[in-house]
Design a protein that fits this description.
single chain; elongated; alpha/beta; 6 helices
Length: 219
């Protein structure tokens, strides 16, 4: 029996991989120049407490982008430095608003002083849906245990939009869609077999986003 249960767990574990697709748009496939004195800031889309892009995911993408002389400016440090113009209620949601904002010499000077060349707006979420099955656990005189089987679908959908803060133009977009099924086996103790949907989405988005940039070694 134990061997059969172990075999079943291995079969389910083999099916716990995430399916991830990436779509990108870059006008004329142009690369974005950046030098060692410049940096990229990744901001999550937020709506005054009603909507908040996962900060953990933003940090994950930032960590994947760092390296190869690409500097990533910390999100909260940027928001504090330009306060209050990138708070949820005041942050520019489009290029027209950004251009008006950059007409303020004080704001423009702060961005230039911190060496921020590109802004990446990151929007999206990870959702759980299509739950099925059940697990029951009980404790008796002879001990306790769990029995049953449950599964659920998870999907991570995120979009990144890149703005050039010098030319005040949109440089490209990336969309990542990652999905997979996770399982929970009730075999004496609950055994979770989790699909790394969000991790795969982060790795794919961060790696692809980094390839948008070309490092200028002349500086």
């Amino acid at each position: 029996m134990n061997r059969l249960l172990a075999l079943g767990a291995l079969i389910l574990l083999a099916g716990c991989g995430a399916t991830t697709t990436i779509d990108e748009y870059r006008p004329n496939n142009q690369m974005m120049d950046i030098n060692s004195e410049q940096s990229v800031v990744i901001l999550g889309r937020r709506d005054a407490g009603h909507y908040d892009t996962d900060r953990e995911f933003i940090d994950c993408v930032a960590s994947k982008m760092e390296g190869a002389d690409i500097g990533v400016f910390p999100e909260q440090q940027f928001v504090d430095a330009i306060y209050p113009w990138f708070e949820p209620r005041t942050a520019p949601k489009g290029l027209k608003r950004l251009r008006r904002l950059m007409e303020d010499s004080a704001i423009k000077e702060k961005i230039e002083r911190n060496g921020i060349r590109y802004l990446v707006w990151l929007d999206g979420s990870t959702e759980t849906h299509d739950k099925g099955g059940s697990i029951s656990c009980a404790i008796g005189p002879g001990g306790g245990g769990c029995f049953g089987f449950a599964q659920w679908e998870k999907s991570s959908i995120y979009e990144a939009i890149v703005w050039d803060l010098t030319n005040l133009t949109e440089k490209g977009r990336l969309r990542v869609d990652s999905s997979g099924t996770s399982y929970l086996l009730g075999v004496v103790a609950p055994i979770p077999l989790l699909t790394p949907v969000k991790n795969d989405a982060c790795a794919s988005l961060g790696t692809q986003l980094k390839q948008f940039f070309t490092v200028d070694q002349s500086q």
